[in-house]
Amino acid sequence: MLALFEDDKGAFVGYNACAAPFYVLLTDCVRTLRQLVPVHPRLSEVKWLFERNGATLPADPGQSFTPGMALVDRPPGDTISTVALLDPGPMGGSIMLYAGWEVDGEPYGAPNDGYVPVPVQLLRAVVYDPAVAYSLCRPIAAPTPIH
Predict the structure, then answer these.
(1) Are strands 68-73 and 101-103 parallel, antiparallel or unpaired?
(2) Which of 5, 37, 68, 80 could, after both became Cys, cross-link 30 (CB 3.0–4.6 A)?
(3) Which residues, 6 or more positions from 92, have their beta carbon under 8 angstroms from its beta carbon?
(4) Residue 32 — left, alpha, or beta (φ > 0 → left; ψ -120 to 50 → alpha)?
(5) Residue 121 and residue 85: Cα distance in Å, rounded?
(6) Whole-angstrom Cα distance, residue 115 to residue 85?
(7) pLDDT in tens, 115-124
(8) Considering only CA atoms, which of 121, 120, 124, 74 is closest in space to residue 99?
């Protein structure tokens, strides 16, 4: 099914990051994630999410620019903002936490009124493992790595 849409650059599937019961953490370099989450001030909430759930950062993949993604549950009342740490240089990776929250139906802490495209990695995971789609509809206990 994914093959029907992967060549169509105009086909987007989106979701409301402010209302979803989960956060999506996405990186193009797991090594960069491992290096920056413990020390970078803009990633303090990412660090806190891992600590809150008793999870550890993903293992070192052994090479640079190995992409990674995690789904993290969002308990009611969380007020965590979207974080984009984008490094256009050839040596560093980028990290994105899709987050935000709503108050009386109004979005806060996210660009585009909270609506963002679903990462391709997540779409692939749902297509290949329907259990991933089910986990998006109920709280999950800890960050779930998806490759």
Answers:
(1) unpaired
(2) 68
(3) 29, 32
(4) alpha
(5) 18
(6) 19
(7) 988 888 888 8
(8) 74
What is the domain range of residue 75?
16-146
Structural tokens at position 70: 């995690």
Are 19 and 102 spatial neighbours (Cβ–Cβ below 8 Å)? yes
Three-state secondary-structure class, residue 52: helix
- The answer to whether residue 11 sits within a structural domain is no
Is residue 75 included in any domain, yes or no?
A: yes
Which tokens in the block code for residue 65?
Answer: 């620019």
Per-residue pLDDT tens for 90-128? 888 999 999 999 999 999 999 999 998 888 888 888 888
Count of CB atoms within 10 A of residue 109's CB? 17
| 44 pLDDT above the threshold of 90 | yes
Rounded CA gap, 68 and 145, in Å?
7
